[in-house]
Design goal:
This protein is 49% helix and 6% strand. It is mainly alpha-helical and 180 residues long.
Length: 180
């Protein structure tokens, strides 16, 4: 689960979308094998996680990533697999103190805001698939695993992502009801 509140994110649907990105980028087994995905380096698998220790800064490690469409060098790390340059921009813009889970969440929300995805996410629910598709379209240039990404890297099918989002949203709705 995200480490910021729905109020800090702007809405529980944004938290559910963050968790959806995390599941798409890392997978549930790798999330479970780590600090909820927040300390994961690119190329990790659940069987062989590559984890960094300490959240003082982005781990700043480069990895060679092989996928069916080719090979890339990547510094992606954390729950949202942010590369160094993206992280540096977000850290500077938001004046974030570290690469902690909270800072990663705040940076991911800002990336969604910059991409124009927030209004679509807030309008989305299980019955407004068109808004979810629009939000994913806005976010796919940032996260390669989302449907519509032009990165050439493997991506999830829209139906799979909609199911993931539905499960994440239900989790936050249940939590909100329990707190009332």
């Amino acid at each position: 689960m995200a480490r910021i509140s729905a109020q800090e994110a702007g809405d529980k649907r944004i938290l559910a979308f963050l968790d959806t990105i995390k599941v798409c980028e890392l997978g549930e087994k790798l999330i479970a094998a780590s600090d909820d995905g927040y300390n994961v380096c690119v190329t990790s698998t659940a069987a062989q996680p590559i984890l960094f220790h300490g959240y003082h800064d982005h781990p700043r490690r480069m990895f060679v990533v092989h996928y069916p469409g080719g090979t890339v060098n990547s510094s992606a790390a954390g729950a949202y697999q942010q590369i160094m340059s993206t992280w540096d921009d977000e850290k500077r813009a938001l004046k974030l103190p570290d690469f902690s889970p909270r800072s990663q969440d705040l940076a991911a929300v800002d990336l969604l805001r910059r991409a124009g995805a927030i209004p679509h996410i807030i309008a989305s629910n299980l019955f407004r698939a068109v808004e979810l598709a629009a939000a994913l379209g806005d976010a796919s240039p940032i996260w390669a695993s989302l449907p519509g990404s032009k990165s050439g890297q493997p991506q999830h099918d829209m139906d799979v992502v909609a199911r993931i989002y539905g499960a994440q949203l239900a989790k936050y709705e249940t939590l909100a009801q329990a707190l009332q």
